[in-house]
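Researcher: Last one for today. Full complex below.
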Amino acid sequence: MSGKTSILIYDLGGCEGCPLSIMRSYPRLARIYDVHAKCIGNADIERQYNYAIITGPICLNSQRHIEELKKIRKNSKILIAYGSCASVGGIILYARGGQEPRPDHRVYAPISKIVRVDFSIPGCPPAPQMLISLLGCIRSGRGYFLDLFKAVSAYSKLSGFDLMDEVVLTGICVGCGACVLSCPTNALHMVDGRPDLIVEKCIRCGTCTVRCPRFTQILIQRYKLRERAKMLASLVGGE
Amino acid sequence: MAFQPATIDPSNPLGPYIGAYIARSTAKNVKAGGGGAVTAILLYLLDKKKIDGVVAAKKTRGIKGEIVLAKTREEILMAAGNRWSIVPYTMRLKETLMSTDIRRVAFVGLPCQAQFLRQMKMFPLMEGDFADKIFVIISLFCMGTFAVESFTDYLARNYNVPLEEVENIDIEGDYLVIFYSGKKLRLPIESIIYHVQHGCILCPDYTGVFADISAGRASREGYTLILTRNRLADSIVNNAAYDGYLEISEATEEEIRYAREKALDKLNRSLKYIMRIL
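Model: Here's the assembly. Have a good evening.
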């Protein structure tokens, strides 16, 4: 047990789609890693982990959850926001209160609003294979897609709306069709060789944005600029 | 572990590769841009039953095209040739790949499409991702695609070239040559750069660093430069040559430098323009 890399899988709430997806990869995951999760009965947020995988959005009204999240951040080397709600907000951004148990859009947020996140994986939910290949890639080092998922962690919202604003309406879309094929709800369709968003169908999962060749480029370049700005700021002593 | 390149950087604009070859098809009836090596590789894969079909773009009318699944030799030969506009992969690709009689296909496309499929293969973000049926991703070298309406309009207005009659477009040195109704029109490349899609001007990827095999025009007339990026791809190319579909020789330094220069051109163009839209 002790030789293996330890992983904590922790759910903060939501529809349970992401935990179910991860659960399907447990048999393979457990062969490679020392897995700790609530459903196995060994989740202990007091000990140290190499990786922590968080699913679900954070409820800003819940003191307990926020403290748990902060503790997990402190105790883990790499924190991964897994799934759309944890990484870019997802459908939970639409919650406007009123329905039982009265969720409110000011109350739920992606976890990057509270803690620093190393990798953000959009997807509603990401397929089981995703986690295994992601952890493998993190272990083997750097790569274009790792840079991309790192860049996504700087965002607290990514959706079909952003795709339309930044790529299609600015005219840099080349019409490859990647976004249309990525959309889980068929919210994007091709009109005259360019994607168009059916707004009622978009669940803000962000899959289209990380699949778009142009948007990924923009995300990564912006992240690099941000890092450089941060470095400059730290040089002059600010935060 | 699946193959994943690092970010494309100026020190290595061709991306990582393990083999570089100059190749051409041994068959005489292959009409394609360069040496027809990609067509030869596809015919080899199909004949040896490694794949059930090929997903590629086929020219329909003028410079427009549509996506097809080629299952026979004839269909592959029909889809060969240069492509001058991007062909969107609408839901038909998904339907084709999801059908049960297809087990493995080869995909031929552009660098941007190779990136998307590689990502789908490595990091399936959705339960419905269908990329595992794609056996090998082949990317063609790409300098950018035309904004179709703008370009055809320009041709029709200034040179009286009707869209329906454009048969083929080719590059000769710094000129773009348009073949239409038996005639030839030579245009300097600088004059038509405005009709390349904006997104393509931002794209840093000339060879398709996310593909298994990248192929495109070599500086030697009538030959194709092939870059293989992993062992599977390398064995495909070598076996195709061994079985007589392809004649290959190691690419010379000069050939690689030629491709590198073009790749650097595209990369520099991209870096110059992307700063304006961040």
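The radius of gyration of chain A is 18 Å. Chain A touches chain B through 49 residues (CB under 8 Å).
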